[in-house]
Amino acid sequence: MKLLKVRLYGAENCHKTQYYQSLLEERMISFEFLDVVKNEDNTVELRDLYLNGRLNFPTILIGEKKLRNPKDEELWQWLDKLKS
Prior knowledge:
By secondary structure, the chain is an alpha+beta fold. It is built from three helices and four strands. The protein has a four-stranded mixed beta sheet with strand order 2-1-3-4, with helices on both faces.
């Protein structure tokens, strides 16, 4: 079984980022929070994920799957794959 890494790109003061942090914590999903406002390396990393180079956050990366501001159902669908 391959362990997928969960990364949340966002900003500390962004309400949508805070929402996803809460959801992940409630589900006890281990994730790495990457603040794109406070850390330039995270900003560059996030921009490199998108062809247009935009700073699209919040973005959740589950393994190689990139979710930009996903609906809860879509997020749970991908997070359920972590368990299988």
